[in-house]
Amino acid sequence: MKEASSFRSIQQISYSLMGFIPYLLAVYLIIHENIELKPEILLLAAGALIAHLIGLFIVNGFARQLNEVLDKTAKAISSDRKLAIDLDRNAPEELISIVNNFNFLLSESEKSSRNFQEMATKMMLYSAEIEKYQNELKDEALSRQRLSRYVGQDLVNKIINSNEDVPLANKQQVVTALFADIRSFTTLSEHMEPEVLISMLNEYFDAMVKIVFKHDGVLDKFVGDELMAIFGILGRPEDGPVNAMKASIAMQEIMQELMQGFVLKGYPSFQIGVGINTGMVVMGNVGSKNRMDYTVIGDTVNVAARLEQMAEGQTILIGEETFSHCHPHFRMEAKGEVAVRNRSKPVQYYQVIHRKADQDL
What we know:
Layout: H1 7-32, H2 39-78, H3 93-147, H4 153-161, E1 171-182, H5 185-189, H6 194-214, E2 217-223, E3 226-231, H7 240-265, E4 272-287, E5 292-297, H8 299-310, E6 315-319, H9 320-326, E7 330-338, E8 347-355
Parallel strand pairs: 4-6
Antiparallel strand pairs: 1-3, 1-4, 2-3, 4-5, 6-8, 7-8
C-alpha cells in the first residue's frame, strides 16, 4: 500500500523546486545569451533568494500550525473528556474553520454519547420493570394455580383482583363442613380394573367439585372416594349452611344423571351419603415444608365426618347448628342423637327430606 506523504514534505519539495526556476533561467541567459552580470542583476538575484526564503518560512509556519491542529485533534479524540480545542487568532482562516467544524462535531458526538447513555439507563430501568412485572405475573399464575385447587375460577379471579386480604388466611371462623362418600366403595373397587376405577372416580369428582364451586364452596381434600368441602369461607359465613345444603341436594340430584351415563359405559351404579355440620373451626395451611394443604380442624369437622359415615345412599344428614340455620328453607326430620368420639354429649342430627318449593333462597 502506498504511504501517504505529509504536508510538510510536499510543501518543502514543491517550494524548493519552484525556487530553482529563476536561478535556472538566469544561468541559461548567462551561458547561452552571454548576458553580462551587472550589480543590478546580482541585487535582483539576492532579493529573489530572500523572498524565496521568507516564503519558505511562512509556508513552514502554516505547516507547524497544521501539525498543531493534528496533535490537538488527536488528543481530543483519545481523551475521556471530549473538550473543544482552540488555535491562535493569527492562524489562517482555513485552519480556524477546520477547528470550528471539528469542535462542532465533537460537541454533537458528546451530546449523542449522553443521549445514548440516557437511553441505556432508561432501557435498564425498563428491563427492571419488565422483570418485575414478569415476576408478578408468575406469582399471580402460581396463586391462581393454588387457589384453583380450592375454589372455582370466577372466585379465583375475584380473590386475585381484590385489594382486601386473601380470604384463605389462618384464623378461627364459623364454617359449614360437608363430607360426601360413595356407599360400599370397597366392594365396588374390588371388581374393577384400576384404569376403569380411576376414570370413573375422576368423572364423579369432576361433577361434584363443579357443584361445590357453584355454591361458593371451598374444596378441602379428596380422601379415596370421599370429598370434603367447606362453605362460609368465601362470602358471608352465615350463608355457608344454606349453600352447603343446596350443594348437597344438587349432588344427590346429579347422581341420577351420572348413573345413567355410567351404565352406558359399563360402570357399576352407586349412591352417595352426605354429612353436614356447622360450627367454629381453625383454618390454615397445614403440612410440611415440602407439602402444604389448606384445611380446617376442629370438633365441627369431626361431627360432619361422623354424620357422613352414618348416612345411607341418597341420604343427607346434618347437625343441629346447620338445622337451626336451614329449617325455614328445607324440610327435615329429627333422627335422634349420636355419640361422637371426644365429645361428652351426644349430637342431635336431622335428615333432609327436600327443599321447600315456596321459598326463594
